[in-house]
Design goal:
single chain; alpha+beta; Rossmann fold; Dna Ligase, domain 1; D-amino Acid Aminotransferase, Chain A, domain 1; 3 domains; 27% strand; binds ligand MV4
Amino acid sequence: MFSRVLVANRGEIALRVIRACKELGIESVAVYSEADKDAPYLEFADKSVCIGPASATKSYLNIPALIAAAEITEADAIHPGYGFLAENAHFAEVCRDCKLAFIGPSPEAMALLGDKVSCKKMARRAKVPVFPGSDGAIEDPKEAIEVAQKIGFPVIVKASAGGGGRGMRIARNDEELHAGLDAARQEAEAAFGNGAVYVEKFLEHSRHVEVQCIGDQHGNAVHLYERDCSMQRRHQKVIEEAPAPHIDPKKREEVCRSAARLIKNAKYSGAATVEFLMDDKQNFYLLEVNTRVQVEHPVTELITGIDIVQTMIRVSAGEPLPFKQRDIKPTGHAIECRINAEDPSKGFVPCAGTIEQFDPPGGPGVRMDTHVVRSYRVPPNYDSMIGKLLVHADDRDQAIRRMARALDEFHVEPIHTTIALHRELMQDPGFVKGGVDIHYLERLLKK
Ligand code: MV4
């Protein structure tokens, strides 16, 4: 096992990793930018190191500064959390070259699954359903037109290096396809330095169902069941839950086994999330694979009782997975509400500033993952998520009531947060019924 892990992140996920280390008897090293120098969670780590100024490029994305911090503190591993460098294969490779364990997949596996064209190829071989479309990257617009003729419009052009909604264009005719190819390619070239694009059938109404998986370095891989993340706005998830509501048990097994098969075939080690779109007939198609721990991982922890962050650390140190697929028995229902320092009544503008009052909820079945305490100052430099409120209950209806109760107890002043929005969503007939599609929340917010 590692003796000291450097946590290459900030905020709630940094605290989450520090806690996992402590429970495993491993020392942790926190890093911070100048904007985070007074963050209270730094005290929970065994050591902390300043890695640069507020700007993320100069701190949390600064590879030489992170490696230097690991070397100075004699850390033997780095946990990247999510965002920042978590899915940067170059960073994983630099860690390996510096004899630091990257707590995540190998750079090769990350690159293979992170590139959507090669990921889709891998999925086809593993008999995981993918959208009909081009076999690989599109070189010539003629090719794209031929594909569209075969599968029918609408189609979607996606950047192979994209993800989370960046570098995508929907096309409903030849003309839009020509324009979409150029636009997606240019956007991808500028954003990722890789202009490769592909074309597939566009599914209009669907749900976002993702499967949590984890593999070890001995060829074992399991799934930890699925989450529904359809409640989203501008590709930012707002509510996540597990299990996904209104899925037939047979379909559920099918989608979860497909995901685990993909991860196993890729000889993947570490945590991965396999994302799917599911249509109203419960047909599912691969979207992409996230090769990191996700914001919403606690939803799965609550229904399975498995500590995903601890397990990531153990498999990264070479331990075999401590459970088999048949040992994983999900119970009850879990919901997560993302608490963002944003004003939903003003187009979700971020609200930085000092939190004078912070009274998080508690009681049975409530989990609050946050780095915030009273008098914490939310810096304007980073993501606006200030915490995650989760509940676990016997079934979905009780989980919704428990969340409504927890949100009632929750008081944050004076900055605006998404708490008030979540209170309304817990009473929204569409959400309460369950099984909404990925456009539901945006339609609701327009009303
Ligand atoms: C799609 C799609 C419909 N059909 N692919 C958006 C983010 C990226 N992960 C893929 N995305 C989509 N891909 C096909 N073939 C619709 C979306 C999509 C979406 C997916 C998941 C959650 C929210 C979304 C919002 C808009 C579009």
